[in-house]
Design brief:
The chain has 405 residues and is an alpha/beta fold. It has a single domain, classed as Alpha-Beta Barrel (TIM Barrel), CATH 3.20.20.30. The protein has 14 helices and 14 strands. The strands form 3 sheets. An 8-stranded parallel beta barrel has the order 1-2-3-4-7-8-9-14, surrounded by 5 helices. Strands 10-13-12-11 form a 4-stranded mixed sheet, sandwiched between helices. Strand 2, helix 2 and strand 3 form a beta-alpha-beta unit. Helix 3 crosses helix 5, helix 6 crosses helix 7 and helix 11 packs across helix 12.
């Protein structure tokens, strides 16, 4: 565990000046803590969840996609009509929807939500999962297909006349002009940790997404994607999206008690393959992001101020699983550490999904926004990070190990 330098109120050059917050919309109460056998939508629950995000001050919500999940386009349309401000992010696999059709569907969503649509393209990290819907391209080719897909989305939204295309993965004649978005081209996000992901994301994406990693490692990855963007001649660099699973309680001590209880329950759920896609995530993961998460977990359970990797270890690196553990103040300070390294889109979603979404909105987001407002007003950092040391203090580190088995 590293020790920070004496607190410097100077805002780091790498710090994001404007930060927005993302959550993930859940369709029913099933969680890794308490799985509920269901393949359906609990409509009252879903309405409450989306309303909680809107009331809690989140800016975006991700509508995930899997081979056995609800359709993300349809769910995103529902979110758009149930809210007035929050921006739905459609998770989309290029193999499932022809690019011109995807452009039409996304533009329709954007019109219905008056400019709130976002798309997150998933090239696919698992050959087995891709094959479930008939996609047999190898991984690097999947990213090459995503690159062509992005070009076609943008052309469909902006070309003033019909155009034809004869590419590696898509071919058509005399399309267009396509159905237009509400006001401007829709933001396109991608993620991944492979070389191919960085190349496509750096050259073409509006947003590049990461799972929560130790601060220095993440900063290196941000520099990599931005370097690729600059080499491609871009003057507007991709925004950086980073995802955490915070475990929060009134004090650091109570948060660690909760964390150790949670990880036992989550691990037991995973061992039974009892929660959603975990049935298909046994064995060594194929995608680089999961491999990195497991590598960090093997080296240490605790990094920096509050990053805890044991949740990633017990789920075999399945998706975004790294936690931030502590009081609202400690977790907010930890998120600000990532803001200082360049993250300007921060996704926080919990293991007790609805209750956590409410708690973050009430207790964590206001602290971060207060600090960001202070920075805007004074040009200096406030004292939250100096006063809540988390893992940089011995007492916190003792709490982190006290409940471990």
């Amino acid at each position: 565990m590293s020790t920070p330098s004496p607190f410097d109120p100077t805002i780091p050059e790498t710090a994001a000046r404007e930060v927005e917050f993302i959550s993930l919309s859940h369709l029913n109460p099933s969680t890794e803590l308490a799985p509920v056998p269901s393949r359906g939508i609990d409509l009252p629950y879903f309405r409450r969840y989306v309303r909680a995000l809107e009331d809690g001050g989140y800016d975006y919500t991700l509508l995930p996609y899997g081979s056995s999940s609800a359709d993300s386009f349809v769910v995103a349309s529902a979110v758009g009509q149930l809210t007035e401000r929050i921006k739905p992010i459609v998770a989309l696999r290029p193999n499932t929807t022809f690019p011109l059709v995807a452009a039409q569907k996304l533009a329709t969503l954007d019109q219905l939500t008056e400019g709130r649509a976002v798309v997150h393209l998933i090239s696919g990290g698992s050959d087995a999962e891709q094959a479930r819907q008939g996609d047999y391209l190898p991984k690097d080719e999947r990213y090459a297909r995503t690159s062509e897909y992005i070009d076609l989305l943008r052309r469909a939204w902006t070309e003033p006349a019909a155009f034809s295309h004869d590419g590696t993965y898509y071919r058509f004649d005399d399309f267009g002009p396509g159905f237009a978005p509400y006001d401007a081209p829709i933001p396109i996000s991608i993620g991944g940790q492979s070389d191919a992901a960085f190349e496509v994301g750096g050259r073409q994406a509006d947003v590049f997404s990461f799972w929560g990693e130790p601060l220095d490692d993440l900063r290196g990855e941000i520099e990599r994607v931005h370097r690729i963007a600059r080499e491609a001649g871009r003057t507007t660099l991709p925004r950086i999206w980073v995802t955490f699973r915070p475990i929060v309680a009134a004090t650091d001590e109570l948060a660690w008690k909760k964390a150790h209880e949670y990880v036992e329950r989550i691990g037991a759920t995973f061992e039974r393959a009892a929660f959603g896609k975990q049935l298909h995530q046994q064995g060594a993961p194929q995608n680089v992001g999961s491999q990195r998460a497991l590598g960090f977990a093997e080296r240490s359970e605790l990094y920096d101020r509050a990053l805890w990797t044991r949740t990633a270890a017990v789920t075999n690196g399945a998706g975004a699983a790294t936690a931030l553990v502590g009081s609202p103040e400690t977790v907010a300070a930890a998120i600000l550490d990532y803001v200082d390294r360049g993250a300007d889109l921060v996704s926080i979603r919990g293991y007790d999904t609805l209750n956590d979404a409410v708690d973050y909105g009430r207790h964590v987001l206001p602290l971060i926004r207060q600090e960001l407002a202070h920075r805007t007003a004074t040009g200096r950092r406030g004292t939250l990070q100096a006063e809540h040391l988390g893992g940089y203090g011995e007492a916190y580190r003792e709490l982190a190990t006290a409940g471990a088995r």
